[in-house]
Amino acid sequence: MELLVAGKILGTHHLKGEVKVLSYIENIELLQGNKIVLELENSQTKLFTVRKIESFVANKWIFSFEEIKNKQDATEIRNALIKVRRDLVGMTEDEYLMSDLIGLKVYDIKNNEYLGDITEIFETAAHDIYVIDTEEYEIMIPDVDVFIKKIDYQNKKMEVDLIEGMKEMKKKNKEKRD
Predict the structure, then answer these.
(1) Residue closest to 64 by CA, chosen among 46, 79, 50
(2) What is the pLDDT of residues 92-117, one digit of tens each?
(3) pTM over 0.85
């Protein structure tokens, strides 16, 4: 069963090992008492049990885990993705959320080039913005048919058609070239 990305751990909260979580789903509180998978920044995965979930602000929550007892342990899971079985949050296998786009491999169809993985999604009043952030550049792609040509959830792939200026080199790399 494919796992759903339900949120991201932003950082620690107080000294008892609690963490701040950005929720990608509406009903994240359903995870309380359940086992979840944390995908760490190094792609390692670990199984945790959600002890308690408290509302923080907007779509941010405070989580405590059975396995985390102090701030030091909580620091080690910073930026981890929270992955869960879809049925835990009432979703079927054929339903998808915007958060399912996190981690999709993005390809520029015009240049037949792999651009990177979607690392973040920003919500704006007009449409969502998909962010591809690599060491060399940052790309922000609006969720508009002009740019998004195909999304293949099965193969975790997105095909896009960029225009000039969407692929921005990062400043530190620009300075190295000068």
Answers:
(1) 50
(2) 666 677 777 888 999 999 988 999 99
(3) no
